[in-house]
Amino acid sequence: MQALTTRAKQVQRKPLSWVERIYLWNIFKGMLITFSHIFKKQPTIHYPEQKRTFSPVFRGLHVLNRDEEGRERCTACGLCAVACPAEAITMEAAERMQGEEHLYREEKYAAKYEINMLRCIFCGLCEEACPKDAIYLSETFTPSDFTRESFIYGKENLLIPDPVKQPEAFAKARGLN
Amino acid sequence: MAEQQLFKVTIDNITVEVPAGTTILNAARKIGGEVAPPAMCYYSKLKDSGGKCRTCLVEVSKGSEKDPRPMPKLVASCRTTVMDGMEVKNITSEKALDARKGVVEFLLINHPLDCPICDQAGECDLQNLSYEHGNEGTRYEFQRRTFEKHSLGPYIQLHMTRCILCFRCVYTADQLTNKREHGILDRGDHSEIATYIEKSLENDFIGNVIDVCPVGALTDRTFRFKNRVWFTKPVDAHRDCPTCSGRAQLWMRGDEVFRVTARKDEWGEVMDTPDGKPGWICNTCRFEKKNTSDWVIEGPTKVDRHSVISQGHYIGMKVPNETFQPLMKGREPKLMMDIHDVSEVNKTNIDLSLIEGPATSETFSPDA
Q: In chain A, which end has fewer C-beta atoms inside a 10 angstrom radius, N or C?
């Protein structure tokens, strides 16, 4: 049979010699390679203490934006959901009632907004589709977890803190300090 | 009656024979496709409609066989009748396309950028028109006109800012209902659709103004903000209705009927019933029958592949054979999570399609 690659080697079936049978020489050879790595540059970092800088186009966890008065920008137009190739986004809209003008920017708002982070592929098409600057992909990872339930992100997980009522939390979320 | 005289008319180098008295627009619609000029105010099922929006402007490069001079100006094709040997240029005329671009800009001057909120988005004639013919930006620097909110009752939601004053709804009320209760008040920049004294529109058949409205000025209040057009699936259905033809289109999601409209033809107008009459539907069918048990469903409506409404309709999808059960000796696969246990959306205790008006924060409050 013709070999699939030029690097294929015939397996040697001949019995091991005495030096090979006690393995000491092979262990020594292996340890030599291990020790030599002590003097080489480390490719890994100590993750939670050290963090790598993100690329400027990194697409991480989603954020639902507010305007400068702290009102939610999302109007539940459904363009992010229609653009989403993984069909991870669902929402339910509601009409703004009288007295809720300080909460929502427009007449209609997303009463429920959910992203299934198990489905999300972080392509950023929702961000691109949004006509209201309401959804952004931030520079953070989705935290890992042991249960699947915790990956259904609702509005309480996604909304950015209110810049008027919680300025510190807002600045932290924006990565300003 | 003597045989009707046939006129030969050439539109964009395609010749068609039409009876005398046909308008250029209808002759072009007979050819179909791109040749037919767009129309915002003309509605073939409404008498006297047309001649207001000027989007159907075409260039007549040869008046007729007897008088071959071209017409000096662009003409509104919905109001100009054909002559024998007439030659019309629509998409082949740069002048007409440029004029149409100007008309779109004028129509959009006072039209708010409401599309993310508007329920008409996705099936809006003005949206389609401005995609095809309009400019990307606006040159208008002034405040758009605003109006005081005017209620038209529990069924019809009026957004006067979106109106382009096409008069279609006025003709509909005149020609379909026994008494017209709304009209255009004031004039010029101030003209608005309203009832003179705050009155709700409750005539039978008045719901058809929603279907004829080319923009989102008149929308269905029972569907308001419930869902987006492209997430609902249109199916053809009929029911035995004593007042109307009962042939309608249901906009469904799962088993829920979110909205009922009349069926539309390729020009966005109400489709004819088999006996040749326009298939207007009555208010009962449109607003009250929101259960699948009320209707006999005929099957999914054919939607143009390029329409946003056809997104997510997985037609011809082949589901692969499930291999788990035969391999595991009939054991069911263990579900790690049922999305409906976790998700806050589409809760089974809130039937959005059955509540009367739009959902509010009260609908979703925990004690509701």
A: N
